[in-house]
Amino acid sequence: MTAPGAPSARDAAPAGDAAAPALDAAAPARDAAAPALDAAAPARDAAAPALDAAGISKTFGAVRVLHDVGLTLARGEIRALVGRNGCGKSTLIKVLAGVHAPDAGGRLALAGRPVALPVRAADLRAHGLAFVHQDLALEEEAPVIDNLLVGRWATAGGGRIPWRRERRRATEALARFGVEVDVRRPLRELSQLERALVAIVRALLELPDDGGVLVLDEPSAFLPAEDVERLFAAVRTAAAGGTAVVYVSHRLEEVLALADSVTVLRDGRHVVTRPLAGAPAPDAPAPGTPAPDAPARDASAHALTKDALVELILGQRLEAFYPSLAAPAAAGAPVLRAEGLRGRVVRDLSLTVGAGEIVGVTGLAGSGFDELPYLLFGSGGARGGIVTIAGAHAQNRGAAGANRGATGANRGATGANRGADVRIEATALDPSRAVAAGVALLPADRGRQSGVPELSVAANVSLPALGRFARVGRIDRRAERHAVRELIARVGVVPPDERLQLGQLSGGNQQKALLAKWLQLDPRVLLLHEPAQGVDVAAKHELMARIEQAAERGAGVLIASAEGEDLAHLCHRVLVLHGGRLVAELRGDEVSEERIAELSFGHIYEKEAAHV
Amino acid sequence: MSEAVERYGLLGAWALVALGFVIAEPAFRDIATAQIIFGSQSTLLIVALAVVVVLLAGEFDMSVGAVVSVSATLLVYLNAEQGWPLLLALVAVLAIGLLVGSANALITLRFGVPSIVVTLGMATLIAGISAGIAGTAPRGGVSQPLIDTVSAQLFGLPVAFYIAVAVGFALWFFVEQTPRGRHLVFAGRGHEVARLAGLRPDRYRAGALIAGSLLASLAGIVLVGLTGASASDAGNSFLLPAFAAAFLGSTTIKPGQFNVWGTFVAVYFLVTGVTGLQLLGYTGWVEQVFYGGSLLVAVIVTRVVARQRTRAAAAAAEAAALAESPPGTAHPAAAPGAAAEATPAQAAASAAKEATA
Lengths: 612, 357
Fold this sequence. Notes:
The complex is a heterodimer. Chain A is of the alpha/beta class. Helices cover about 30% and strands about 20% of the residues of chain A. Mean pLDDT of chain A is about 75; it is low at about 1-40, about 280-300, about 320-330, about 395-415 and about 605-610. Chain B has one domain (about 5-310): ABC transporter involved in vitamin B12 uptake, BtuC (Orthogonal Bundle), CATH 1.10.3470. At the A-B interface, strand 2, helix 3, helix 13, helix 14 and helix 15 of A face helix 9, helix 10, helix 14, helix 15 and helix 16 of B.
């Protein structure tokens, strides 16, 4: 076993980090704390850290996404793992879960027992590692008890399940975490919080008696704020039982309220691991004598404020600024309006997009920003609110008319010079109506929602406009091919061969072709979700140029993306969501990558709330 | 595998099989054999096309065989025993096909039950109802004009053959040449893509299930026209060969997609094989072995080809993603880590799917 604290010291971010040096100097406290002896687990060294990973690197092709990162947790410690999107925390967790094989040179030990890398997913349980992912991985229709115990039923004589005993076991396990339910009921009857707790209890049942390590990946993402405290209680109960918890969250308020310590990753590197003052002392017996090189918890735990944490995450000093609520730069008449929109995460959100305006919506994972384009397109998940799409102008008739054959709906919407506005309950909106009203959506899931990879580029691109190529009910395939070839050449698809299967193009070229599919309709409203995801730089520029061009031609554009850099480059206005609500709006010159990132962490939220 | 080999491989295999039989069995060289091969299987052709329509929409219709039986039985029962005029009996039989298809579509879409289960239940249900009404005894006595028309020889082949070709041509035209046919393909291959393009894929799925049953009814009528009689289980023997032909057909002409002319080639490949083996003296069991084996080989080939394509596409996509971020940039945006954190997007997508289901 290496000296406690050593991995963190070695992994601390190199200099060149403006804000962090002072903090980096503070050695992790609880990392070093040796837990009390526990004789219950003979094969495992109870005095060793529950989790001790060091030197973990991961390279995908030419891109190194993790640089020599370490993570050490004592028994019963709650460690928050934070960083912005793409900082490497997901990759780190996937290495632990055996999804990714790390580069050579890493080292992993659990409760003092070395574990060979890459971890084999089948051995996780034997190692005492359990994971709860954001989607919980539960079966909605199955009874609670099945969700909890499947794969680990006790068996009585003849291989039979002793139902009465197992029911009691399940009920008691849940009750310890405050879930009082009839375990025979199907899971879907439980609240979102109760489901999360079921997933956590299931994971805990997998862990050995000495506690093991539980990794919670954004467990609160879909929870209403009022339920988060109960989730915390469950996590603390688990930690009190000796389980070390890695808690991944974007919600920094939660991190500060719950965790004993925090590890910050940035650009694939370990930045700092620090104890947190705000966390209540665990109920577990106090840890043993701290290692001499680590300051005692209370001594070192000068309060880490949320601002300081955001600075650590971003790697730069926060500028004191507030988004002004001044009038917007001149945008055209509104083409899209949403009032009181509600979805799975989005709560009571209102927004307007003007003609010729490019509006970005962003936030952290789980903030609901990525739900918006789908809600506005009526593709499902809406729980309330009203969407208004401005009536189409004359020049748009071509597009809507071309699509008429496709949908047959809303023929009237494109009347003479200007049709009436389409004002509709979000729950009643569907893609067919949206398209007929002049709305286009380019989803992020290219292969499943946006295009069919096995079909030709020509078929994929012409799909919403097939009516244009119909002569007496028959597709003029020559005209179709020519039109598609011209379209994809214009957006720079390489090679501009419409006969290829869509899937034979590179990701960027697929995306260009699929954008062209919608641009040919001259949409009044263009909704995009992560339009530049997984595309190369050149393709990204091409895509952005086309999006700008669409806006110049009068379309209202809404881009949902976690890529602050892209949004800063492209958008007239950026809306930031946090916990499903709109918390900030940046306009014109205020739009910058740094500000978007800061606001995403909810930084301004409290201050603004205080103003109101 | 080169594209031409992939595209015309089955045609070549068919030619080889035929050549083999020509060499091995003198009776195979008889023109009558060719007539049997091309003419006798018109019913199977139509049933295979019924299966193809439904498969194109991404659904399964296991009730086509039963619809053939029921249609044939009721046609003879109504016309010969109940004394209905032929035309009225024909309309009634097609109406039954329409009804069964509509019921399949309604249950599949309204309640979200997989069509393979719905149609399996429907097959047994209608076979039972038909037996209750008309009994299970084989029966003949249908109006002679029907037999005369369907069995009439035209250039050495029965009219039934031309009916099947006409149906095939119509289906090919619809799928390949019309906007709605293209929509049907997207509804089957990319339900979400179609939906988010503003189409209503469920309508196409329903339409395909209805069209499949209607074609099966037509096949039942053709069967009666060719044989002059009906048996209560006459249609069941078509189900497996029809699926074998549809899947085998999807490996040729337009590889990777269920297609009309590929299905024709596949039907004739299967029939040639079976006919030749029978001429060589293998009877009874050989049909089952050949049809069953062909279906399995066809689905394996389909799967392997699809997997190769997916792998090639995935490799291309990964290469593109990696090319994006030169190392050392501040934001490895395309790094898998970043992609992995976009899970709420997928969550939203699946939520959307749930909502529509």
